[in-house]
Write a structure and sequence with these properties.
The protein is an alpha/beta fold and 264 residues long. The chain has helices spanning 10-21, 53-58, 69-79, 98-105, 139-148, 160-187, 192-213, 217-224, 230-240, 243-263, and strands at residues 2-6, 27-31, 47-50, 62-65, 88-91, 110-115, 125-131, 150-154. It has two domains: 2-155, NAD(P)-binding Rossmann-like Domain (Rossmann fold); 164-263, ProC C-terminal domain-like fold, CATH 1.10.3730. α6 crosses α7 (192-213) and α6 (160-187) packs antiparallel against α10. The longest helix has 28 residues, at 160-187. NADP nicotinamide-adenine-dinucleotide phosphate binds next to α1 and α3.
Length: 264
């Protein structure tokens, strides 16, 4: 597949890394205005680095946009004359709606809107995608790309803001929970390196149990909570202190904020 990533920053390079590791590309254009700090990516034989977005678009079939929202309109205007039927356009830009993209380049192009997260660099992104009418036929192609970089699902565009909170901001939420568990483990006597390892891998084990068994979390909780035991006592204390409630409130607060930002 000939892919161009327009905007080789944090997310763009994470996607690039995932695509390279998974041998998902024949050529991969990486663009940014100042290419100096990504020069070492040319060590990969498929990668071409350039600040020329137009060349990248002309030479590629799938164009992934990973620039900041304020630059997106300008870049779309810059390349719109070069987009044809063969191109599949994939936007990762937060808050930029499909109708806004169509308003610049027209509705007769395949447009996919996606919301990945930074775990894409290790092939573990939870990515939500949706498309315009013309892009419906290309949804499977987009899913195939994102499934190589983790797991993807198609959702209605109205749920994209909610997906941003759960999946993109969600990385930060889970990191904080892992950090808190690490702090607890240090208090129980583990050194910080051990504590971090215990926290990370227990978190991964818990998620893997659910992914592989398809079970509800409460079923797995039942398996480890002996009546009158230490687990239920600790868990109930966490709930008395507002564990579930504070997570839900934080998620709703983030959602309100993202809606406010998109109104402004
Ligand atoms: N980070 C996340 O977890 C995440 C998750 C989902 C979605 N997103 C979305 O992904 C987008 C990128 O986020 P990010 O964190 O990766 O931002 P970032 O690190 O700032 O990367 C954006 C890149 O775009 C380049 N750029 C700016 N203008 C350009 C132009 N005209 N042509 C080509 N490249 C240009 C910048 O480099 P130069 O200044 O050198 O040009 C920069 O490297 C945002 O819209 C964000 O909403 C991010």
């Amino acid at each position: 597949m000939k892919i161009a990533i327009i905007g080789a920053g944090n997310l763009g390079l994470s996607i690039a890394k995932g695509l390279i590791i998974n041998n998902a590309i024949t050529t991969l254009y990486l663009t940014k205005r100042n290419t100096q700090n990504i020069a070492d990516w040319e060590k990969y034989k498929e990668v071409i680095i350039t600040s020329d977005n137009k060349t990248a678009v002309k030479q590629s079939d799938v164009i992934i946009f990973a620039i900041q929202p304020r630059h997106f309109g300008g870049v779309l205007h810059e390349i719109k004359g070069l987009i044809n039927e063969k191109h599949v356009l994939i936007s990762t830009i937060t808050g930029f709606k499909i109708f806004q993209i169509e308003a610049i380049i027209g509705a007769n192009n395949s447009i996919i809107r996606s919301m990945p997260n930074t775990a894409i660099s290790v092939g573990k992104s939870m990515t939500c995608i949706c498309s315009n009418k013309k892009g419906e036929k290309q949804i499977e192609l987009a899913k195939a790309i994102f499934d190589r970089l983790g797991t993807s699902i198609e959702i209605p565009e109205e749920q994209m803001q909610a997906a941003t909170v759960i999946c993109a901001s969600g990385i930060a939420f889970w990191m904080r929970l892992i950090r808190a568990t690490t702090q607890g483990a240090i208090q129980l006597g583990f050194d910080s390196e051990e504590a971090h390892k215990l926290a990370m891998n227990t978190c991964m084990g818990a998620a893997s149990l659910l992914i592989e068994s398809g079970k509800h979390p409460e079923e797995e909780i039942d398996r480890v909570t002996t009546p009158r035991g230490c687990t239920i006592e600790g868990l109930n204390e966490m709930e008395h202190q507002g564990l579930s409630s504070s997570l839900i409130k934080g998620i709703v607060t983030s959602f309100n904020k993202i809606n406010q930002i998109s109104k402004d």
